[in-house]
Write a structure and sequence with these properties.
With 199 residues, the protein is an alpha+beta fold. The chain has a domain of 134 residues: Ferric Hydroxamate Uptake Protein, Chain A, domain 1 (Beta Complex), CATH 2.170.130.30. The protein is built from three helices and nine strands, in the order αβββαββββββα. The strands form two sheets. The chain has a six-stranded mixed sheet, with helices on one face. A three-stranded antiparallel sheet has the order 4-5-6, covered by helices on one side. The longest helix is centred in the first third of the chain and has 31 residues. The protein is globular, with a radius of gyration of 22 Å.
């Protein structure tokens, strides 16, 4: 009898885990969709013109969003040069490769990371992301010199190893923290259900 009860409890645990995890993931997805551009913290706004583009510098431990206003056509790399000339303390470095210039460093607000993905930087490099909003950023398959900006465009640079994770958007909870919370709830939920059942 006791063996049968344990078998039933295991089945309940598996079913409860699945149901509870689905509920948590659906709730998290709904919450993520509630964020708007007004929730994003912009550290600096420079430039002038009728168009506006944004770039996020994600160091992993902190991230910054910068807004650049422009009129004449511009690409992703030239935007960085413009930001460097207009924002005191913002610097970036590039090195020339067979495939064109590679961004290898960013320095801003006391944060600095430098690496090109080789063993010298333990595989870390600056990954390039593009999108039409901070919530649609994906790793880019073209380089920043070939990225033609448009009004409302978003770029991001992430200090990462391969494969890169999602971008940490300034002002929003970090994706890793959100997933950790989901995991904790998903693991705790079935246990609480079983304890309740035993009472």
């Amino acid at each position: 009898m006791e063996r049968l009860e344990r078998k039933v409890e295991r089945r309940i645990m598996k079913s409860a885990t699945l149901v509870f995890t689905l509920i948590v993931l659906m709730t998290a997805a709904m919450a993520a969709g509630a964020w708007t551009l007004d929730d994003v913290v912009i550290s600096e706004e420079v430039g002038s013109g009728v168009n506006a583009s944004y770039v996020i510098i994600d160091y992993g431990y902190t991230s910054y969003a910068l807004k650049y206003n422009w009129t004449e056509p511009i690409n992703g790399l030239d935007m960085l040069f413009e930001l460097e000339s207009l924002i005191p303390g913002f610097d970036f470095g590039i090195k020339q490769t067979a495939w064109g210039p590679q961004v290898v460093s960013f320095s801003y607000n006391g944060s600095y990371e430098n690496g090109d993905g080789t063993s010298d930087s333990n595989g870390y490099y600056w990954g390039y992301f593009t999108g039409d909003s901070p919530f649609s950023l994906e790793e880019s398959w073209i380089g920043a010199p070939d990225r033609n900006l448009f009004n409302g465009s978003w770029d991001a640079w992430k200090w990462t190893t391969y494969p890169p994770g999602p971008i940490n958007i300034p002002g929003l909870p970090e994706p890793s923290s959100a997933m950790a919370l989901v995991s904790m709830i998903g693991l705790a939920g079935p246990t609480l259900l079983l304890r309740s059942r035993r009472k």
